[in-house]
Amino acid sequence: MAFTKMRILYRKWENWILSLFFVLLMLLLAGLRFDYYYDLNDDVLMKDILSGIYTGSCESRNVQMLYPLSLLLSLACSIFRTSYAYGLFLCLCQTAAFFVILYRSMPYARKTAGKIMLGLLESLLFMALMLPHLVFVQYTVTSGLLTAAACFWFLTGEKAGEANGAGGFLKRNLLPVLFCFLAFLLRPEMMVLLLPLAAVAGIWKWAEERPVFTKRNAACYFGVFGLILAGLLAGQTANGIAYGSPEWKEFFRLFDARTEIYDFKTADIRNYEENKAFYDSLGLSEEETALLGNYNYGVDDRIDARLMEQIREYSLERQGYFGKNLREGIWLYKARLRNTPGLDFDTDQELVFLLTEAALVVLLLLAAFLGRRGAVIWQLLLFGGVRSLLWMYLILRNRVPERISHPLYFTEIILLGALLLRYLQEGKVREEAKTPARRFRNPLYVSAVLLFVIALAGLSRSVEKTGEEYSRRAIVNRTDTAARAYYRSHPENLYLADVYSTVQFSEKMFRDGETGLGNYDLLGGWLSKSPLAEKKLEVFGYSSLEDALIRGENVRLVSLTGESWEWLEAYFREKGLEVQVVLQERIPGGSEQNELSVFRLQKMEMEDGQ
After folding, report:
1. End-to-end Cα, the chain, rounded Å
2. What is the pTM of this model?
3. What is the dihedral of CA 423, 427, 429, 435, to 10 degrees?
4. Is 106 in contact with 15 (CB distance < 8 Å)?
5. In angstroms, what CA-CA distances link 136 with 40, 90, 96, 469?
6. What band does 594 get if pLDDT is binned at 50, 70 and 90?
7. pLDDT tens, 99-133?
8. Using 50, 70 and 90 to split pLDDT, how confident is the model at 424?
9. Percent of the chain, pLDDT > 90?
10. Contact 124, 96 (CB under 8 A)
11. Do the beta carbons of residue 507 and residue 477 sit within 8 Å?
12. So where are the chain's domains?
């Protein structure tokens, strides 16, 4: 009797149980082999801001994500007195995205064995495609995963004609609306980039309605899209209010100009001789321009929003908005589709995405042919057109890092996978599998076998690549760990690091959970000259970095061993102050390849006539 009750209970919750099982299995296997890392030092700094390490108090404005979300995360850090809140949030978002995809897939298999095979296939594919991003977690990728899961939920749900009116349709799609809103708060640029693909999903599904154009359908589909847009507008409005002070507005002028220059136009600011006339018109000397080239522009109080905007406008005049012309862009787009080696992307990693996407397209065409559904042709053409426009935009902007390209690939695969599931579910494309030969010809089995082969082959390479990167980071971040320990052991000092000496460091997500004020900062970077940076310096008694370097007896400089500080000596010499950067000691415990050294700034009397 008890067994029968358990069986009935299992049947009722089977889709939940199996989805949760595969999620936990995936996390267990990844956790046994790897620890979680923040992928970039950007995420580390965001964590430091939220948890109080940066300024000494949990800040609700961390610049990179929108205010409503950063407020909630800062409150969590404050209440629980741990810096784990941000890392846990990112991991939970990624896990939730994968769970939603699994859960919405389960109804497409009729029997338990089929559900298990489908769950296993999707788990293998997810690990093959996204394992590096599961281990080395990044907020941009997480935003992309949330958007992909939202698209999958929407595509695999009921049609408007099957729902209980427009209200019922909207209610059933509140989760994708919430996921899109959360993705936007986390990384607005990533979610907006994927929004056209979400629109493709909406058009696909609406076109399946019979009849297509009715008031009810319009209310349902425009209602969902309207809720998403309303959420984006509300998030942006709240963010604008939170950053509405003159100080923050001034900083964001600087931030936006800096982003354009350093992400897209870096070459223009590095060559002083080539741009001498322009820099002379700004009143910038060669020594001051050097601060722009090495990203340590926080040292110079003169480099403000107005000046950075002038440099941006100059760069746009020279290169234009796009870094590539159309002919170059088309060639590079074709090269990515062909997985051409020798370009600025990892062909091994991208091959798995391309093979999976190509296999899904072939299987869709096969399913459509067997089911005599010509609609798949226009659906794929629409998808291909939107996909091409998105990729061309990124390529022409000359900005396609993995944290953008991989979520874009993944969302494309999710859309195609959802469409394939819908086609395979229809009885028109199924054959009665009475014999093994006929079963093998069934698109369901062909799809599963082909995708299993791709997933297994891709998983092997993904584990290998992740292991290599994991070993590299363990060595590199040994230096960062040693540096943090060194800073804590000398609380009387303020340590200011050369930006490019620290860009390769990240951090383990769940290392120590510290929340105390850190006595270290950078000489530049994306947070430089912000109200938060000024607040941190005020804690140590300084009004700016330049003030700290000139007056600070307790200020120390940090860089990779062997890096020259001649640029800083030349900068102060041009300002009429003779200084010498003197080696004080090397930080023990770091890796030999990435050893850090600590310097002090020794002021000297200038000779007569200088």
Report:
1. 98
2. 0.94
3. 130
4. yes
5. 8, 11, 17, 9
6. confident
7. 999 999 999 888 899 899 999 999 999 999 999 99
8. confident
9. 69
10. no
11. yes
12. 246-319, 477-604
